[in-house]
Amino acid sequence: MNLFKETAKFISWFQQVLLTFLRIRPWTTTGIVAMSAASRITTVLTTFLPLKVVLLAGSDGVPRYFRFFMDPEHKDAWIFALALGAVACYAVTVWLDSLTGRLSRAAGEEILREAETIPIMNNQEDAAGNHYAKFCRILADGIFVLAAVLGGLFVNFWLFVFIPSLMLCFFSLSALFLRTVDRMQPSGIAVYIQENLSNYTKTLSNVVFFSGFIFLLIPFLVSDYSNILAAILSIIIIRQLLGAQTGIVRNAVQLGKSRHEINALIFRDVQLVPRESPIEKVHRELFHKEARRRIAEHELSKVMGPGTSPEVSWLDPIIPGLDTFMIKVRSKSSGENRCLLQQVFPPKQYQRLEHELFLFRHIPRAHLAAPELVSMFFAGPFQCLICDYGSGRPTPNSDWPDVEHQLTQRMWSCRPPDELVRIYSASAPLLHHRFNGEIADRLEIAADTEGEMEKLHRFRSMLPRIREKLQSIPLYVHNSDLNRNNTVQRPDGEIMIISWGRWTLEPLGAGLPHRLRKKVPAELLGKVGAVRKDIPKDLSREDILTAAWCFDLENLVNKKRYKAAFQMIDKS
């Protein structure tokens, strides 16, 4: 990122948009800019005048830096007038800020009418008003910064030469930090600036302020300089100047991020076209055919030895939001042929990967038919996981009913360790905790008839018994993504479940596939009971179906399918 070029592009675009505003609402735009700049000035006075009053009231007579305009005989009158002026400045500041807000909204609505824009986003009028206000505020703050520097030159010349020079140095230093050779592998400081811009600008602002403070303090220490009033005024101007400068940066970045939306709102000939996000651009550049082959070769050489020659091809996502690649690799040293799967986790999906890794820190992968983990690494901002992909062929449709039965039995047969249950239940409620009176409360809005009110009353009366039953049913690891596409056959015919990013602990029966509910639960329960010693002997098929019923009802309520939920209650 070239900060100088980006700044020049923004200034050009800013000028184009501002000229459009001036054409549509010339007087309003000029007035808002003037009032915003005036608000900054009255803010300075609101801070400065009380200090001036304190200095005057605490002095014997009139200090020498007041004598050129103040008669000692009228000291008390001046104290009262300056105090009243401070309050008036504050009131004017509040009034100006409120007025500019109302005018900005009105101007935004007229700009939308002028552009003849159809609704293209939520709260479009408010968005247009906010964008309009930010453009005006940037111009006003820019005028204030210029006026503050020019005015400060008359108060303390060298101080207000030093401050802009230091700000320019920090801007150049920031440009150097952001100008990375490889934007797909940015430096740590560049990532910090982009992700923590507010903290970064605040830090620079404080550094500039305290540098200016030390610069201002030096004359008091090395000479007989004693103009306290000028020093106080300089500090206030610097603080407000830096606040305005920080506001310019913050608003400019926000407007730049919404540039395509703003153009569509303001200009008639511009359409709102979905654009590729920066993370998507990096992904496309980082994982093009040759680049992803080099990445795979580098990472696999660490675990399979040198000489691996992978062939990496795109695979339509198994899980929405996660890009996947199939890797066919042959090791030259061993002659072994393997089919692997590379899953790419963008920053927004890190939690899914961490959730899966947490599970397998407590349960061996083989116990849940999960594939062997081959490698895990970062590629730019993306976290990648390479695992075994068996034969590379998902379960055929014709085999899925039998496979689903086998996998359900496999998951039910794996008892979650007590430590995992303890940690999980401390962070996420189990079904017997979730299945409470809140479900009945949410259903109440859809109880339109006397019959539905009776069902709801009956459901409430059943809740304590149901919750007690759910609590008595042993837990298992449920995979919310269990489907045919999330499985793969191994060469020996065994089936693996690829993704485990959305697992939960549920009572046996919760999430049971519908095709298995009529005949299989009793058989399943017998086979699982032979493996798990924590299965009570009195656990029945009806208990399993109760857990399945509760899980399904909870899902219907979460999806606001309340009428369907009443039908389930009626059949219970």
Question: What does this protein structure show overall?
Answer:
The chain has 3 domains: about 5-265, ABC transporter transmembrane region fold (Up-down Bundle), CATH 1.20.1560; about 280-390, Phosphorylase Kinase, domain 1 (2-Layer Sandwich), CATH 3.30.200.20; about 395-570. It has helices at about 5-25, 25-55, 75-115, 125-155, 160-180, 190-195, 195-220, 230-255, 260-265, 280-285, 290-305, 350-360, 400-415, 420-425, 430-435, 435-445, 450-470, 520-530, 540-560, 560-570; strands spanning about 310-315, 325-330, 335-345, 375-380, 380-390, 475-480, 485-490, 495, 505. By secondary structure, the protein is of the alpha+beta class. It is elongated. About 60% of the residues lie in helices and about 10% in strands. The strands form 3 sheets. Strands 1-2-3-5-4 form a 5-stranded antiparallel sheet. Helix 4 (about 125-155) packs antiparallel against helix 8. The two termini are about 60 Å apart. The chain has 20 helices and 9 strands.
Short description:
With 572 residues, the chain is an alpha+beta fold. It has helices at residues 3-24, 26-57, 75-115, 124-155, 159-178, 188-195, 197-222, 228-257, 259-266, 278-286, 289-304, 350-360, 400-413, 418-427, 431-434, 437-443, 450-472, 520-531, 541-558, 562-571; strands at 311-315, 323-330, 337-345, 373-379, 382-388, 475-479, 487-489, 495-497, 503-507.
Topology summary:
Layout (H helix, E strand, L loop, with lengths): L2 H22 L1 H32 L17 H41 L8 H32 L3 H20 L9 H8 L1 H26 L5 H30 L1 H8 L11 H9 L2 H16 L6 E5 L7 E8 L6 E9 L4 H11 L12 E7 L2 E7 L11 H14 L4 H10 L3 H4 L2 H7 L6 H23 L2 E5 L7 E3 L5 E3 L5 E5 L12 H12 L9 H18 L3 H10 L1
Antiparallel strand pairs: 1-2, 2-3, 3-5, 4-5, 6-9, 7-8
Helix pairs in contact: 1-2, 2-3, 2-4, 2-8, 3-4, 4-5, 4-8, 5-7, 7-8, 13-18, 19-20
